Amino acid sequence: MERTNNINSNGRNKHKTAVLEKELVKDTETLEALTSENFTNKTLPAQTTPEADVHTQAETENKQVKPQPPETPKKKKPIGLILTALGVGAVVGGGFGYHWWQYASTHQETDNAQVAGHLHQVSTRIPGTISQVLVNDNQEVQPGQLLVKLDPRDYQSKVQQADAALQNARRQAQAAQANINLASKTTNAKTVQAQGDVSGAVAAISTAQAAVQEAQAGIPAAQAEVKQAEAGIPAAQAEVAQANANLQKAQADYNRYNTLSQQGAIPRQQLDTAKSAYDVAVAQKDAAIQGVNQAQARLASARVGVAKAQSQLAQAQEGVVSAQAKLAASKGGLQQATAGGEQTTVNRNQYEAAKAAIAQADASLKDAQLQLSYTNITAPAAGRVGRKTVEVGNRVQAGTPLMAIVNDESWIVANFKETQLENMKPGEEVEIKVDALPHHPFKGRVDSISPASGAQFALLPPDNATGNFTKIVQRVPVKIVFDKQSIKGYESRVTPGMSAEISVKVK
Questions:
Q1: What is residue 200's predicted lDDT score, i.e. its pLDDT?
Q2: Does domain 155-372 have CATH number 1.10.287.2610?
Q3: Comparing C-alpha atoms, which of 229, 238, 239, 248 is closest to residue 287?
Q4: pLDDT the model gives residue 437
Q5: GO terms for CC (predicted)?
Q6: Per-residue confidence (pLDDT) for residue 494, from 0 to 100
Q7: Could you count the other beta carbons within 10 Å of the beta carbon of residue 107?
Q8: Do the Cβ atoms of 18 and 36 come closer than 8 Å?
């Protein structure tokens, strides 16, 4: 590789020149070795004698005469192939970049999306004990299908009690209505009779007064006895009136206790006591009437005495007294008839109260029947059973969750960044990739966009007016519904909670 040229101008070897032959250097180590060797030849000239120079010159000429081996041809670099590859790569990369830019400018994507659906929580509306569980986990159910049965015996007993109370209220209403009719008829009859008695008594008084006028002269002593006897009559009549009032009160008490006894509200002893009081009042009235009769008899005896002295005057006065007595009795009968009308009013009020009791008892019966119907817990919608926590024998309270029914209808809730919603509108096409079914893309459309970001619906929404403010891109939920033909056959495999990737084609 190194060639030395000897230059001799005056027959002497003045100096030697080191020449590096052209050779392809393949690595840095070879280049460093060649450079080091050349530097050594330049810095360390050879020490030669004239004889050595002559000999060297001759050797050099001989070496120059010798033919040199042919040089190795240079290897050409494949620059054309490299440039071709780079060109093809640039074309392919440019095409891919253009298509990617075109796709990215018309699509909005996110992997923050989950499948959502209807989860119907099944719970009991009444407390009770579980007697039967008719479904298992993940079982398909239909609307109205019986899921769980509670022990119905307690509620059946309440229904029977409410029905008995309703029948009792109806019987009381019938009795009250019968009392109204009876009291009305009795009152009318007594009123007519009392009015006739009053008219007759008024006529008798007029006749007696005429007789008195005819016999005005009488013995003063007889008249005094007559007055004394007349004074005793009002007292006896007052006793009769008091006895009538006591009798009416005892009769009303007896009727009320009789009604309560029929209802079973009071013992039989109280009814017997009321009956005894009624009998005593009747006896007192009879005694008072007898007192009145006795007073009238004394008056009659006095009048007999007067009659002995003056028979015509005595007879006239007796007629007056008798007529007055009849008038008083007639007035008493009329008052009693009027009191009977008040009793009719009381009976009507009792009938209205009985009808109200019927309505209340009927409402109680319907409520008891409704509570009994709650012992059968049915499916609120079609779907599959999930999170079943109920077992036979469990004691549950009202509102205790028993299981959940997951409806086959599902949709996607995708949380897009607020910067992605500029051109997004309801009705736009969506490509859906569910992580559980990566080899089956679904089609859908944008249904609606949430009226607020997800952070606003959090338990503790952020308040940017307090503390240091850091702007964070918010995410807004977007509801996406599946295309029916796209999800057909996969309804039961796409379940709420699955993750998904969403690509919306915006316009």
A1: 72
A2: yes
A3: 239
A4: 92
A5: membrane
A6: 92
A7: 16
A8: no
Distance CA 468, CA 266 (A): 79
CA distances from 228 to 232, 296, 298, 323, 326 (A): 7, 11, 9, 18, 19
Please give the Cα distance from 35 to 15 (Å, whole number).
20
DSSP state of 71: P
- The CATH code for residues 108-151+382-505 is 2.40.30.170
What pLDDT score does 426 carry?
92
- Residue 289 CA to residue 318 CA, distance in Å, equals 19
- Long-range Cβ pairs for the range 132-136 (8 Å, 24+): 132/392, 133/388, 133/390, 133/391, 133/392, 135/385, 135/388, 135/403, 136/385, 136/388
- Tally the residues of the chain: 507
The three-state DSSP-derived secondary structure of 137-182 is: CCCEECCCCEEEEECCHHHHHHHHHHHHHHHHHHHHHHHHHHHHHH
Q: Give the residue among 385, 361, 421, 418 at the shortest CA–CA distance from 165.
A: 361
Q: Which amino acid belongs to residue 367? A: D
Query: Which of 263, 473, 246 has its CA nearest to residue 353?
Result: 263
**Tell me, what's the pLDDT at 352?**
86
**Residues 6+ positions from 218 with CB-CB distance below 8 Å:** 306, 309, 310, 313, 314, 317
CB 428 within 8 A of CB 507: yes
Q: Which residues of 346-363 are buried (b: 16+ CB within 10 A; e: fewer)?
A: bbbebbeebbebbeebbe
Full DSSP string of 199-242: HHHHHHHHHHHHHHHHT----HHHHHHHHHHHHHHHHHHHHHHH
Residues of the chain below pLDDT 70: 1-77, 98-99, 102-104, 190, 195, 209-223, 226, 303-317, 334, 336-337, 339-342, 466-467
Query: Is there a contact between 192 and 289 (Cβ–Cβ < 8 Å)?
Result: no
pLDDT at 17: 39
pLDDT at 329: 75
DSSP 429-445: EEEEEETT-TTS-EEEE
Return the pLDDT at 217: 53
Contact predicate 254/274, CB 8 Å: yes
Angle at 158 between CA 154 and CA 159, to 5 degrees: 115
Report pLDDT for 404.
Answer: 95
Strand order in the sheet with 128-133: 376-378, 146-150, 128-133, 395-396
Contact 338, 190 (CB under 8 A): no
What are the extents of the domains in the chain? Answer: 108-151+382-505, 155-372
pLDDT score, position 98? 67
Secondary element (H or E) of residue 130: strand 128-133
Indicate the SS3 state at residue 121.
Answer: strand
Start-to-end CA span in the chain (Å): 73
